[in-house]
Amino acid sequence: MNAENKKINSFEMAKRQVDIASKYLNVDPGSVEKLKHTKRELIVHFPVKMDDESVRVFTGYRVQHNISRGPAKGGIRYYPDLELDEMRALAMWMTWKSAVVNIPFGGAKGGVQCNPKEMSLREIEHLTRRFTWEIFIMLGPEQDIPAPDVYTNPQVMAWIMDTYSILKGYSVPGVVTGKPVELGGSLGRFEATGRGAVITALEALKYLNKPIEGTRVAIQGCGNVGGVAAKHFDRLGAKVIALSDSKKGIYNERGLDLQRVLDYKAKYQCLACEKKEESEITNQELLELDCDILVPAAIESQITERNASRIKAKIIVEGANGPTTPEADEILNDKGIFLVPDILANAGGVTVSYFEWVQNLQELIWSEEEVLERLTRIMQRGFKEVLEISLSKKIPMRTAALVLGIGRVAEATRLRGIYP
Ligand code: NAD
């Protein structure tokens, strides 16, 4: 593998972010070092009986980064080239994210190295149930609460909840969030991350004195986060000019007919140019489009030192976790691009996950209006607090968000002290 293609190590990237932010924090070096380590890591290798009766061995992970402020919280990802360091980075970002929006959770992440696109529903169910059994010792509403992430969904959460409940002997809805509403999922959870990202985009536009109407938006990824964000931008009068999935993107400079595009994607599991004004583009071309807002909403390390200088967007709203490397951050910053960082922009998911967990523990059901009103308030407060730090310390929005998040976690750790 040459240097150009070398996979960027997300954990190294996340640790560098801690070093950058800790320059602005009054935290002793030992505590900074602790924050750069995860708390617990479980690696499991487990067999699954496939549809053709063969047995395949899969590798899965659950990593808890920090639980100083509350139970560990973080998604479960099914992805072919999943690695432990990626899990560590994503768990760390969950810790900072919960702290940025001031929610009493720590950070975790997990997943299985697999390609769900090549598996039947039955195989995915068997994999999910066995994986839940394997990581059972780490899970629980007071210990560690998974949620959906890339290539997992409410159905996968339902299987995790069911398996965990069977092992306990009674129903435990609070062990996962992002469940189907019928099983205690929260109204508004499915839409929460994409919606939250759009709320922060609106705040960014307000701060920069720009209207939403006619704003040209390009979105990488059209899954839970990207697809929902696209719908909300469209509803608010913005023009979604490009959208992509893992294979390709489609582009129409006058704005995509979004409902038709998303309906086609839902029906055929792919994007297609059905109109002559639409053209096919690559994921890399999408990132470099001339647009007002760019929303990376797929996977990590998409904006790097290789393409950052060619990014033309005025605002970047990070729907995905870790889409931008620290080297790219410097380039974007020099170009004057206003960036809403991941640990703020996509915090809507963990925020409504928190609402779901609270409803489960209290056996309450909130209305969608109530969820949305609380989500909006928390996202706007998070944006305001990060912007204030950015302006007062004259630091980029990402560093400001890390200062806020890491600062809160460090203070909680200081107050709790070191045992014994
Ligand atoms: P998803 O599985 O619903 O969608 C993922 C999208 O990314 C799909 O459109 C897929 O085609 C695309 N994709 C996958 N691999 C790609 C590649 N190599 N290049 C380009 N596109 C690719 O997942 P999601 O839940 O929408 O998650 C997307 C991002 O948002 C992830 O970084 C995730 O960690 C983050 N996130 C998700 C949530 C949530 O609530 N689901 C919350 C916070 C952050």
Write up this protein.
This protein is α/β, with parallel strands linked by helices. It has 14 helices and twelve strands. The protein has helices spanning 10-22, 29-35, 84-100, 121-135, 154-168, 189-207, 224-235, 258-268, 283-287, 326-334, 342-345, 348-362, 368-393, 397-416, and strands spanning 40-49, 55-66, 72-79, 107-113, 144-148, 216-220, 239-244, 249-251, 279-281, 293-296, 315-317, 338-340. The strands form two sheets. The chain has a seven-stranded mixed beta sheet with strand order 9-8-7-6-10-11-12. It has a five-stranded mixed beta sheet with strand order 1-2-4-3-5. Strand 6, helix 7 and strand 7 form a beta-alpha-beta unit. Helix 1 crosses helix 14 (397-416) and helix 4 crosses helix 5. The longest helix has 26 residues, at 368-393. The N and C termini lie far apart (47 Å). Residues 1-5 have low confidence and may be disordered. Nicotinamide-adenine-dinucleotide (NAD) is lined by residues 148-151, 193, 220-226, 244-246, 283, 297-299, 319-321, 346, 349.
Keywords:
420 residues, 7-stranded mixed β-sheet, disordered N terminus, alpha/beta, binds nicotinamide-adenine-dinucleotide, 16% strand, 5-stranded mixed β-sheet, single chain, 12 strands, 14 helices
Produce the secondary structure layout.
Blueprint: H1 10-22, H2 29-35, E1 40-49, E2 55-66, E3 72-79, H3 84-100, E4 107-113, H4 121-135, E5 144-148, H5 154-168, H6 189-207, E6 216-220, H7 224-235, E7 239-244, E8 249-251, H8 258-268, E9 279-281, H9 283-287, E10 293-296, E11 315-317, H10 326-334, E12 338-340, H11 342-345, H12 348-362, H13 368-393, H14 397-416
Parallel strand pairs: 3-4, 3-5, 6-7, 6-10, 10-11, 11-12
Antiparallel strand pairs: 1-2, 2-4, 7-8, 8-9
The structure holds nicotinamide-adenine-dinucleotide (NAD).
Nicotinamide-adenine-dinucleotide (NAD) binds next to helix 7.
